[in-house]
Design goal:
The chain is of the alpha+beta class and 165 residues long. The chain is built from five helices and seven strands; from the N terminus they run ααββααββββαβ. It has a seven-stranded mixed β-sheet. The N and C termini lie far apart (65 Å).
Length: 165
């Protein structure tokens, strides 16, 4: 084997050992949809009626809502929340295609009542579920796993204040 071939094989081995072939290497800090979202503080009332102000990206048009966190790096997902805003209540589902980290999602009705919180996991070969509260909603908040628990936000007890948008 020539010197050139040995160097190529060594380089490929080093790349594999250092994680250079990880599918998340192709992640982005912001996808096209996130670049057009605006950032806004929202107000949530927790289980005890305490106001919590959370900075979120607002996905309020079809293009922004269609992108969500697709292709975004896990560290960005950990530090970012997206509020999906619909002009009227909808019956819709969310997916995890091309999402690089698990998420929690909370669904809110038109009056801001938290109606459901679900954990959305990264897709595997075993399953590609869709996530829905099983009823109409007008707002959906995607955040890092544990966000709703850590913030004392529970279905039937917590609210999003729509006037804060």
């Amino acid at each position: 084997m020539g010197v050139c071939n040995t160097l190529i094989l060594f380089g490929l081995s080093a790349l594999i050992l250092l994680g250079g072939c990880d599918p998340q290497d192709d992640c982005v800090r912001l996808n096209e949809g996130m670049r057009s979202m605006h950032q806004e503080g929202i107000t949530l009332l927790d289980d005890n009626g305490k106001s919590r102000h959370v900075q979120t990206l607002i996905a309020d048009d079809e293009k922004e809502r269609s992108f969500g966190f697709q292709h975004v790096c896990p560290d960005v997902i950990e530090d970012t929340a997206i509020l999906f805003v619909y002009p009227r209540p909808v019956a819709a589902s969310f997916h995890m295609s091309n999402v690089n980290a698990p998420l929690d999602i909370g669904f809110f009705d038109g009056q801001g009542q938290l109606i459901s919180v679900l954990r959305m996991d990264i897709y595997t070969d075993e399953g590609r579920p869709l996530y829905s509260p099983g009823r109409s909603f007008q707002y959906a908040l995607e955040a890092r796993p544990g966000f709703f628990r850590d913030s004392a936000l529970s279905p039937g007890r917590s609210r999003l204040i729509p006037d804060s948008l």
